[in-house]
Amino acid sequence: MRKLKIKNFKCFIDKEISLSNLTVLAGGNGAGKSTVIQTFLLFAQSFKSSTSLNLSNKLYLNDYYTELGNSKSLLNYDANNETIEFEFTDDNDKSINFKYKYDEEIDSNIFELLNKEEVIRNLKESNALNFVNYFEFIGADRLGPKTFHHTDKNFTELRVGKIGEYSALIFEKHKMEILPNGKNLRDNVNEVLSNIFDFVNIDTEFNKKANIAMFEIKNHPLSTEYESPVNMPYGVSYILPIIISCLVRQIDKTKIIENYQYKQEENEIIIIENPEAHLHPSAQSKLGYFLAKISNHIQIIIETHSEHIINGIRLATLEDDINNNNISINFFSSNKKSFEPNIQNIKIDQFSDLTDWPIGFFDQQEADIREIFEHRRKNRK
Description:
By secondary structure, the protein is an alpha/beta fold. Helices cover 28% and strands 23% of the residues.
């Protein structure tokens, strides 16, 4: 997918967001980043498949991925009509436009589709909605260290869950499957973990009677036995769902999904909120590098407040692990003249420099240092 257009929804009157293999959403709190993510979440929780036979007449506003409340409250304050639109554009510049209205008298928890016949026609030409088939959202509020994980409701899925609740199950089911590099999933996950944290090894045990999966961990190279998952650092527990979700999708799906027949370009998308949570700056940078490299295979959208994630991505371009043209940074900022935020698209050039560095874009360190020096200067007088 290469573009998303949003009209009359929440803070947006009419905005287009550029998407790439790796898309970064950055900017201040309340500037509109979550609204972009919520658009994807609405479609993911409302559509079970991208085929016209399964086309939903409704967008469900309150379900597993997101809870947005009353439909009328989601219409933009300055909208000149009551139609809310979302347009997805694929790699071949083929678009699908969805037009919705709210109807509180029928159901305040839905948007009703207005142009179903047009959407069905466009679905035959565009693969922009195919992301719903193997979509993954990993939220900012992920699970910390736990003694065990329940494994219900997810045996036929590849998803680790929005809080990482199915990470242990996915890992346990597929850890011996071989990835394109010739190593199994377990070895690949541990290789990434050890690169980010110097040394971490994880494995799982499955209790059939209780139907639970349990992580176990070694976090020192001299460790001879795996330890309880409650000894797992928060940074490791927060990053595990991300790494597992990214790597498990490298496995041949015919081997892990029963009756797998999907033929079209899949356009898989993983959306990750605050991947940097609970990580040391050096680990954040290495995670940014990993996400950049893996986005050659899976489209990834991240929402981040970390300059270290950005720097890890920039380093990956210098080492040719991702083409700089396959990265898109969208900087969201408030607009004093309108309720609608500004969105500035920033590119990374061939030298890993950013094409723009607007005020407020990861410049707080410089601003703080200037203020510190100013206070020192005044105090010396």
